[in-house]
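To fix ideas, we now present one chain and its tokenised fold:
***
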Amino acid sequence: MVGLYSISITNSNVYNIIQLMKAIVDRFVNRFVSKKLTVFLIGTLFLYLGKLNGIQWVNLSIVYIGSQAVIDTVIKLRQNGK
């Protein structure tokens, strides 16, 4: 009975599965958590695990806070321009 059902796995099948998985993960991340916040949280985890030192974590925090401030400013400017 082993020969009755054969599964053929090709490179295009694997590629399609990977693309589907990426789309599902990306949809989850976009829906629940911003990518910048994800990077910030991973940086905090790495600080806790000793993979980042304090200065590196502060630099990451400054980039996160600064980029979020720029985005908020642009949104307000666009809303005021309407």
User: Anything to note?
Assistant: The chain has a mean pLDDT of 79. Residues 11 and 17 are 10 Å apart (CA to CA). The chain is about 80% helix and 0% strand. Residues 2-80 form one domain.
